[in-house]
Task: inverse folding
């Protein structure tokens, strides 16, 4: 009776570690998606800040050109006022010269004095004509400069409109890229979970007759006694038989996984919490767990599994399934775990 009861206790499935592992996987996936979202927001903020700097620079140039245009307009107005005064003076001089010539023709006054006055007026008139001509040239030059400034302001405004349109288009593209990235990540997670379920289902069918091989969460667990002698990393004949079945299942599943899914099979070595003596081949449990996971990886490679699809890791005694200080707990903690994941 006692033996039967113990056998039933050993066959009892502990669902709690599987639930914890599933929850951990979900949290990791959420953290990864949040990291991608933060990265997308960071890139978006950099893009927007760069656009803001360009817009501010263009606005500053437009303000400077607008001030310069206002100054040129003021200068042009002053020049036009001066030209109007010169033209008024010129008209007065012309009128005065005409009057003097009429007086001279009628013989009024002294002829020499009238001629002198006419000569003086003619000189002033010529001088004012020259000044008026220079003023007209300055006005024409200022008009040309104003036209050039207006053309430059128009070009800057066009560039500003193009930059704003590109900014809106970039924001739209970034938002669309973020949505597509989230959809792609969710699809990848779903695909990998589906192939992981298929993989574990096939392993369960192949290895279902062994009590020391079981599924815990998203990992396939081999007790160390199934594969290795005590304190050794050399796989025993019974373990080689089981590993060959595993290699066949991996090769079969590899044909169905799309090449764009960058999957790997992680082999984790675990030990119990009893320290090694330090006088043997391995100084501590770290070295023993790493050596055992490496032995499994090398055996799978020798049986056709691609090396780039395998990862070996050693955890020593620091990731126990059962933290109790009993022999049964230590037996459970000595194990090799297989996990299909994405690189």
Result:
């Amino acid at each position: 009776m006692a033996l039967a009861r113990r056998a039933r206790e050993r066959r009892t499935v502990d669902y709690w570690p599987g639930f914890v592992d599933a929850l951990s996987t979900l949290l990791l996936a959420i953290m990864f998606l949040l990291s991608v979202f933060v990265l997308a927001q960071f890139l978006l903020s950099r893009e927007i800040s760069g656009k803001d700097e360009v817009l501010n620079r263009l606005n500053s140039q437009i303000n400077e050109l607008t001030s310069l245009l206002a100054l040129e307009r003021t200068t042009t107005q002053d020049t036009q006022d001066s030209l109007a005064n010169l033209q008024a003076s010129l008209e007065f001089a012309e009128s005065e010269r005409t009057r003097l010539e009429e007086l001279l023709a009628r013989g009024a006054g002294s002829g020499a004095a009238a001629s002198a006055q006419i000569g003086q007026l003619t000189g002033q008139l010529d001088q004012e004509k020259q000044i008026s001509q220079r003023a007209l040239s300055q006005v024409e030059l200022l008009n040309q400069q104003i036209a050039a400034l207006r053309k430059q302001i128009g070009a800057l405004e066009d560039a500003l409109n193009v930059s704003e349109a590109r900014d809106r288009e970039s924001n739209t593209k970034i938002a669309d890229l973020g949505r597509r990235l989230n959809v792609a990540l969710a699809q990848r997670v779903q695909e990998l979970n589906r192939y992981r379920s298929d993989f574990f289902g096939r392993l369960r069918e192949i290895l279902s007759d062994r009590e020391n091989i079981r599924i815990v969460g998203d990992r396939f667990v081999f007790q160390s006694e199934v594969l290795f002698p005590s304190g050794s990393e050399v796989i025993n004949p019974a373990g080689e038989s089981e590993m060959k079945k595993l290699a066949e299942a991996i090769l079969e599943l590899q044909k169905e996984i799309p090449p764009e899914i960058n999957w790997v099979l992680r082999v984790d070595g675990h030990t119990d919490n009893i320290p090694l003596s330090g006088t043997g081949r391995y100084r501590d449990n770290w070295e023993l767990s790493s050596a055992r996971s490496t032995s499994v990886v090398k055996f799978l490679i020798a049986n056709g599994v691609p090396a780039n699809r395998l990862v070996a890791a050693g955890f020593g005694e620091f990731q126990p399934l059962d933290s109790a200080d009993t022999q049964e707990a230590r037996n459970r903690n000595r194990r090799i775990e297989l996990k299909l994941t994405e690189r």
The chain has a mean pLDDT of 76. The first strand starts at residue 213 and ends at 216.
